[in-house]
Amino acid sequence: MPGLWDMHIHFGSDDRALRLLLAFGITGARDMGGDVAKLTESRRRIKSGELAGPRLVFAGPMLEGPSTEPSNDTWIIHSPDEARHAVDSLVALGVDFIKVHDGLARDTYLAVANAAKAKGIQFAGHVSASVTPGEASALGQKSIEHLEFLPKPCGVLFDPAARAAHHIPPECEPAALQATLLRFAENGTWLDPTIGSFRYFAPQQWPAIFAEFCDLATQIRQSGVLILAGTDQSSFLEEKGAAPGRSLHEELALLVTAGFTPAQALRAATSNAALFLGLADSLGTIEAGKIANLVLLEADPLQDIRNTRRIVAVIAEGRVFDRKALDGALGGGLGIAPDGVNLLQPAVAQMRSRTAQ
What we know:
By secondary structure, the protein is an alpha/beta fold.
């Protein structure tokens, strides 16, 4: 199958985690908030072959409202002028997109959106309470993460007691949500639900969250909105029990459980990711002339999505990592086939023979 993409991570400068992603067949990753200098260095090392890891695209620091403390991972934005300056600075630093987070005032969010458009760079992330999801979509937010595509009052949908008492705000009724989703489809707004992350962020509410997501998934499919597969994987989630790399395979299984077909779930992590990133001409599908980012499996994931975990080898940017090398990554290291030596010549030869037949 094509190499997988995890479209929402927070550890793009962690060598060990990046090796683990590759070991699980993830040949591309979108980092949604981190130290831009460290991310730039990780990308350089991966490209040069010094570090075994997935192709990286990243936002650098997240743009957030003033209720949070600033850090190398987060820039606090107080005004529209600061918003425009932040976008200009991030573009100069070479980020791939702008990440908006929580707490941005309405005029500040609008300034980010307008500055990103002026610079020709995408912005993605959360939906601040100062705008509605529909407004964020109309303003050009490329992707909406987690369950932020729901209006803020719709948190009651995950409260069984409130649902039983019919305490559902009008904007959260099925017809209203469907109208919002259709607007997303019209505007080309993508959803990256990272549904599996809620098992760790809200373990007690997880059954209700996933049950509601299954209902929402039906509406998402019917509306034609395109989805991505991401995990929100971070050191924090790993401490809670989420494993880098493995969590994406679990996300795909959850999407299937929620009603997506195995093919739809796989597209979310392969061709959809490439299309979203503007890389469909070179990545995302298996075609002659495209970059060799591939995963060789023992069994067909279209028959059982869990077969995505039955990895024999990973080919990243044309470099082959056999099962021995992948097992080494799971144990802490990852060898690279020198000079592109094919460690799976018999298997590849057999595949070519079948293709010829």
